[in-house]
Amino acid sequence: MNVGKMQETQNRVVSTQETGLLDVLVTLAENLKLLLIGSLVAGLCALGISFELPPTFQSVAVLQAEQPTASLMLTTAVLDPVIAAMGLAKDDALENARLKLREQIKTAVGRNDKLLTLTVSSRTPQQAQAIASAVIKQTYQESRPKGSARARLETQLAEAQARLKNAQDASVGVLKRLESNGAGGANSGTELARGYAELLNATGAAQSQISLLEIQLEGVSEAQLVQSPTLPQNASQPKKGLIAIGATLATGLALLLFIFMRQAFRNTPVNQTNSAKLTRISKALGLK
């Protein structure tokens, strides 16, 4: 007896599921034209509008520099001279022009290669390239130390160069003594060899410090420019195809939701309870 009831219940569940699936398919079939035509019309309209949007071009430059240089490019010390030189402020306030230019500039430093990529967007290819070049040129100037910081580095450089010369002169003298026949016994030769090795280490350390100080004094320079700002040929924005596809899909989903909601309202039995619920929904949505 129980087995028969269980079988009957399972059959009802299967039948209900099949009926529900058929209802969905019927609803889709009856509104297929609305879905297709509505989505296509929305996509075509979006594509047409995208042709009216102003194009944006991107100029890209690459430098051998790290995050401090990328941050420097977005400071007022770099942006304000670029705005003044290129006349980007015009009738606008300097602060507003600075905000707009900062939005046009994107910087990114590679995690592995440590290369700084500068991307500048503008309405024309020539202006995008010109702004990128101006930003890089101003970055060169601002990256060089100034005032007391420069004087301190120059003093350290002079001291390092003096140490290098002394170590080189001393190593030459010790080398001559090692090569001479009158250097003395084995112990003396060992001491001289040890002293010569220490002088070589001191020479290498001084050379490394000199190179580092020279780099700091020079700042970011033309030698670190891997790729000059490009002159873009094609607009990067708007992406007309993506806009059309996005509008088509969004409209299709909205129409699909509308169709199933309308069908659900149609299939809802009209009784006092459901009528009250529908009235509450209409009031909540601001519908009469």
From TrEMBL:
Superkingdom field: Bacteria
Database matches in InterPro entries: Bact_polysacc_biosynth/exp (IPR050445)
GO molecular function: protein tyrosine kinase activity
Compartments it resides in: Cell inner membrane
Keyword Lyase: no
Principal cellular location given in the protein's record: membrane
Positions of transmembrane segments: 241-261
Membrane topology listed for this record: Multi-pass membrane protein
GO cellular component entries: plasma membrane
Keywords, comma-separated and alphabetical: Cell inner membrane, Cell membrane, Membrane, Transmembrane, Transmembrane helix
Protein name: Polysaccharide chain length determinant N-terminal domain-containing protein
Lineage: Bacteria, Pseudomonadati, Pseudomonadota, Betaproteobacteria, Burkholderiales
